[in-house]
Amino acid sequence: MRILVVEDDPVLMNGLRVGLALSGATVDGVTSCADAEAAISAGGFDAVVLDAMLPDGSGFDVLARLRAAHDTTPVLMLTALDETPDRVRGLDAGADDYLGKPFDLDELAARLRAIARRGHGRAAPVLRAGGLLLDPATLAATLDGTHVPLSRREFAVLAALMERPGIIRSRAEIEERMYGWQEEVESNAVEVHIHNLRAKIGRDAIETVRGLGYRMRAGA
């Protein structure tokens, strides 16, 4: 899950980066309305954490402009403005969820998983492909009931493929799920992780589509 955090408090931003990364997310951050709109318009985020009060404007206005432009990226507003009229304003402006500060990080992570999976058109909290089960809440994988040990990035690659079984994921799309803006992308990282995953879940589970990318076999 790739998350954009829009927050101008550097301490809170750092805490969100670290905490959400521990829950398995790849996290990028911006501190202004202008940067938020530019980042979201570039695409690739499964969900956005949006503060209401930013140095160059209001998060409510950012959200309203995104929805007016038919951008459906799931947005959770995370703000100190937590009175009922504020929550109503945020939800009516197009927020998918609203959480006041202070907040519990585990609850925030769970809410983000919920709006992200709804954004992918999926209601079930776990991903399934044949006998393979992937639980984003616990970062656990099982194959026919047997635990499959995965690194954080192997989990991210497999989740990206299992979210859309049968659909080709390009190398760039998979890299976006593994690396944030500040992280150096290793040149053959995708190939290495795909190789390792095949060794753990079966060689035929992930298909290479030459020149295009990879896809999870629908019947895997």
Question: What would you say this structure looks like, in words?
Answer:
The protein is of the alpha/beta class and 220 residues long. The chain has eight helices and 13 strands. Strands 2-1-3-6-7 form a five-stranded parallel β-sheet, with helices on both faces. Strands 8-9-10-11 form a four-stranded antiparallel β-sheet, with helices on one face. A two-stranded antiparallel sheet has the order 4-5. The longest helix is centred in the middle third of the chain and has 15 residues. The protein is elongated. The model has no long low-confidence stretch (mean pLDDT 94).
Report strand %: 15-25%
Spans where pLDDT lies below 50 across 5 or more residues: none
Mean pLDDT: 94
Q: Secondary-structure element sequence?
A: EHEHEEEHEHEHEEEEHHHEE
Q: Give the termini separation.
A: 22 Å
Radius of gyration: 18 Å
Structural class: alpha/beta
Helix content: 40-55%
Main pleated sheet:
5 strands, parallel
Structure annotation, total helices: 8
Provide the spatial order of strands within the biggest beta sheet: 2-1-3-6-7
Kindly state the number of beta strands.
13
Overall geometric form: elongated
